[in-house]
Amino acid sequence: MKAGSRLLNAVSAVALSAGVVSLGAGLAVVTSASVANAATIQRIEVVGASRVGSDAVKSNLTIKPGKAFSNSDIDESVKRLYETGFFANVNISVSGGALVVKVKENELVNQVVFNGNRKIKSDKLSGIVKTQPLGPYSTEMVNADIERIKQAYAAIGRNDVKVTTQTYQVSPGRVNLAFVINEGDRTKIAAINFSGNHAFSDSRLASVMQTKKSNPLSFLTRRDVFSEEKLHSDEDLLRQFYYDHGYADFRILSADASLNEQTNAYTINISVDEGRRYTFGDINIESSVPNIDASQLKSQLLTSKGDVYNASKIQKTMEALSKAVSAKGYPFVRIVPRGNRDPQTGTIGVTYMVDQGERAYVERIEIRGNTRTRDYVIRREFDFSEGDAFNQEMIARAKRRLEALGYFSSVNITTKQGSAPDRVIVVVNVEDQPTGSFGIGAGYSVGGSGLILEASVEEKNFLGRGQYIRVAAGAGTDDSQTYNLSFTEPYFLGYRLAVGFDLFKSTTSSNDYYKYDEQGGTFRVTAPITDELATTFRYTYKQIKYRNNGAFGADGIAGTSDDTMSQTYIDLIEGSPWTVSSVSQSLTYNTLDSQTMPHEGIYATVTQEYAGLGGDSNYYKLFGKARYYKTLSDQQDIIGSLSIGGGHVFSTGDGLHVFDQFQLGGTQVRGFENNGIGPRTVKDGDALGGTTYITASAEATAPFPGISQDIGLRLAVFSDAGTLYGSDVSDPSGVEGNSMSWRASVGAGVVWASPFGPLRFDFAQPVVKESYDKVQQFRFSIANQF
Predict the structure, then answer these.
(1) Are residues 561 and 515 in the same domain?
(2) Bridge partners, 758 (sequence order)
(3) pLDDT surpassing 90 at residue 722
(4) Alpha-carbon distances of 127 from 84, 132, 432, 550, 576, rounded to whole Å
(5) Do 340 and 416 reside in the same domain of the chain?
(6) pLDDT at 13 over 50
């Protein structure tokens, strides 16, 4: 038996000694038939590892002395050694009772540099490549780095980039590596073509997409950078657009992009089948959940018979139903819409099925793609946490909230199986976008205070924490000055409470007599009531001071008679500074489909304010404004809007001061100067304000004729009207304009969704005005995104 064992071991050793694996330049060759399954070695010998060291080689082997191994162990060991990147060649063989590992070491990289790069900085490229100083030089790794650099340039629209390498020997076994980059020209998008579309024009559909045709300012917006992922996202946007406008049968037949290498430009061709347009038929709710009466859920419906079919309204209805049923103690409820499509009548009836879904729990929420925004800023938009009941409608609600923040260019939420059948992992993929802006506002008053300028810096996602901060300063040619600082924490102490403050200081000047200083601050708290309704509470304290503008003597009135100066302002100067301490509460209703360019929806706010918690003012104010948006033409993308506003104030003490009353002007009725409308003093024409105001406005905007919608230019026409009257402040020289006299203006403007942010230029001509009103026909504003 022992002789047989010795013979078997001898045969095994011979077979093993013939089993040599040699790999070089990425090629593996096995030069024997098979290594015996029970083969063992007594020691490991390493040859050629002068810099790396034999211990480092042995630590990457799966073969150990005294343990059986096979060819697969040799293959795995060779693979691991190559993956370290330190070796150009690896050879493993068995000689007697020893495993011999012969390696040829790669050269070490002394320095990595980038030449020719201007569009992407070297420090960013250093983070992209895997080849690093003091690391190994590997041909395979360098080739992979070249592809990584090309992908980085493709992401900024430079598919024409060329990347080569050069090496410089600095000492035996050490090289400097240079990536030589020819950035080439920007790869553009020459055209975006549609076929099969009849309900909407090519330009209207192109405006829905994120990918844009190249234009002279595309180097700033980067919206003409092509990628397959972006095109797939655009397909989803087009589907949603059609589904929300009644086209439930819409299909994308094909979407492809072809690159013309001579012009280095893509042409995107999208073929669609629109189908017919549907309206909603009968809307019903059916429930299989015990103790849930379907009739009691009808108040949650956002879809009505006869309305144009809208997939987003169906989704929002599902969310509302899910929330209502969950509140009744059924967290695993499942809402399934069942459609009854009738092509003959062009209607789709919808029955919402309320069923008890399978029990599932959220195992964890994974956040991916956010390079700037903190994870907790994303997590707090979900109505559930790890361990809570899983509900699909809550996912849709969270996605809508994340998109509404304006922090991300894309939001995608998916789910995958957890560690158990009843566990779900929620995966959130986002892509950060710029959230800061630099703004410049300008206005010009004809015959009034002249040129007015304001600059501001705004950040909606401060330090990635979701906080809002704004700093602004302004000045006018009449020595007026304004300073503002605002800050908001949208989730105070982890609750859905937006807490913030505003600090302000301003100086304005009358035409002849006084300067008006105002400074103070506001503390505010906003709480949501529903997704569309919120309330805000404020406390405001401010100090108001009137100063001599050079017309008075040292005592403020010396050298000036009542004939040349309003008694109202004499009283103010002698009594200043004045203080106002007030509390207010606002309700805001917002159903806009977009905060940047709304096509549909209502934005309304109403505020009540009480002053009298100390200070010199005692009054109660009630004021508000509502604006309604409606798409007048889907084909031409014409958007109409109507707005109304109004307010009234009355004294709760001994009377009102000038600064307690409402002022009206160019921000409400274009064509007039700020504070340019309403009661004024007869002698010097200073604005007194009024106790009551009413405003109304109508506006329509459309893409600028003859210019691609991708440029973002829109033409606006408008008409404004308003009145301010009922001043509670008297003046010895008399007050004019104290009656309910309406003013009106008409005008046109150009709105540009520019790379610098929304920009607008308006010209308004008053058509109904009073002789004492202050006119300002031109207004200009700009906001610069960075």
Answers:
(1) yes
(2) 753
(3) yes
(4) 19, 9, 19, 63, 62
(5) no
(6) no
Average pLDDT over residues 65-85: 86
- 481-496 pLDDT per residue, tens: 889 999 999 989 888 8
The range of the structural domain enclosing residue 292 comes to: 279-356
Whether residue 136 sits in one domain with residue 14: no
pLDDT tens for each residue of 393-427: 788 888 888 988 888 888 888 888 888 888 889 99
pLDDT of 558 higher than 50:
no
225-243 mean pLDDT: 89
Q: Which of 157-161, 239-243, 268-272, 755-759 has the lowest mean pLDDT?
A: 755-759
681 shares a domain with 548 = yes
Token pair 């031109």 is found at 778
- Tell me how far apart the alpha carbons of residues 669 and 661 are, in angstroms, rounded to a whole number: 18
Residues in the chain: 786
- How many helices (H) and strands (E) would you count in the chain? 12, 37
SS3 for 99-143, per residue?
Answer: EEEEEEECCEEEEEEEECCCCCCHHHHHHHCCCCCCCECCHHHHH
List of residues 6+ apart from 653 with CB closer than 8 A: 612, 617, 618, 619
46 forms bridges with which residues in the sheet?
Answer: 101
Minimal CA–CA distance to 746: which of 777, 715, 782?
Answer: 777
Structure tokens at 486: 């605002």
CATH number at residue 75: 3.10.20.310
What is the rounded average pLDDT for all residues in the chain? 83
- In this structure, are 486 and 599 located in the same domain? yes
Residue where one domain finishes, among candidates 182, 217, 236? 182
Model pTM score: 0.69
Give the count of domains, the chain. 6
CB 165 within 8 A of CB 148: no
Cis previous bond, 577, omega within 30: yes
3-class secondary structure, 152 = helix
Task: Pick from 515-519, 527-531, 536-540, 673-677 the range whose average pLDDT is largest.
Answer: 536-540
Tell me the torsion sign for CA atoms 554, 560, 566, 570: positive
Instruction: Give the 3-state secondary structure of residue 515.
Output: strand
Cα 657 from chain centre: 43
| Residues 534, 402 within the same domain | no
**Among candidate residues 50, 74, 105, the one where a domain is terminated:** 105
